[in-house]
Amino acid sequence: MDSWSPPAQAGTPLPGQPVPLALYDSARRGVFPTNPPASGARMYVCGITPYDAAHLGHAATMITFDLVYRMWRDSGHEVHYVQNVTDVDDPLLERAERDGEDWKVLAMRETALFREDMEALRILPPQHYIGAVESIPAIAAKVTELMDRGVAYRLADGTNDVYFDISQAPSFGYESNLDREEMLALFAERGGDPNRDGKRDALDPLLWRGIRPDEPAWDGGALGPGRPGWHIECTVIAQGLLGDTLDVQGGGNDLLFPHHECSAAHGEVLTGAAPFSAHYVHAGMIGLNGEKMSKSRGNLVFASRLRADGVDPMAVRLALMAEHYRADRPWTDDLLKTAEERLARWRAAAQAAYGPSGQELLSGVRERLADDLDTTSALIAVDRWADETLSGRGDDSAAPALMVSLVDSLLGVKL
Fold first, then answer.
1. Is residue 400 within 8 Å of 354, Cβ to Cβ?
2. Which of 288, 327, 246 is nearest to 61 (CA)?
3. In a 3-state reduction of DSSP, which class is residue 236?
4. Can the peptide bond before residue 313 be classed as cis, meaning omega within 30 degrees of 0?
């Protein structure tokens, strides 16, 4: 599957001393330095299930990991970035059936629209943009390996469904830090089936779904025809392209459990290497009218709709960076208006002949972003520089050009 095109000028190196990035790790519940190996930083971000257009929650998540990418790149790390597309899954099939549409056409259309949104928002593309469908042979092989090792089992109800035995993953639960009752509630809410008869444990996740009438299926070899479960999809794609361990596994905070917990458990059992990722990084949810923005609630603001209405994607990007990435936060008209005013002020300041020290601004923005992507403080630092510049302060003739470069390279905003 093709990724999208990188933004122009995004690779321009900045002068001065980079600042190493530290990020909050959900498993350790604290901010810790990222220490990518000399071979390069390895990041896996869970992508979309393409049954509808990308909303601002998706955009905020992708901006978060775009900032991680930019900070690593600024520090001189080669970044190996993989993102998946869950291009076959129950929500996609249900939407296609509801609308009387071929599920493959629906997935292709919405994936293409997502790429357009990412380009407009100037998101650095992953080197590998991988669909679940193209990964099915590799996934089936890994599920078969888990079966052969006795850490997965087939239900005895004739469905040929295969489940992972969480008792074989003794560290299960370390990433989310949830108790069993919390896990059970979220498992039921987020696609799990805790009440299914025949499972060894209510929290055992599905690895392989046997063929059903009127559903797509693929050859699973010894597994029989069917399609993969959600969590094992990400495990196999990530480890197949990035190795046994990652530097960052990322996504929205609604993926912490069960998705990231299960995918990490699968990976650790398959390879014996732990932890699956050095950092588990989770972005907050974007809300509208007091509720999380989600397709099930129908309270979505689409990035593509804003673009069609003539909203500058750079204003959208600034609005989504105005508060810290880990915070659950609302989308409002006032938030967008403030971002548009900020963008106009920055663009005006960028045209000045002089300004306060550009090197000091660059150092300040680097320090703030290095501290768990503190975009709120980073934007305020640029605001202060812009206000002083527009007030005629400063005598650094190189500052405006450096401000444009750093805002582009570190924040992803084109002025």
1. yes
2. 327
3. helix
4. no
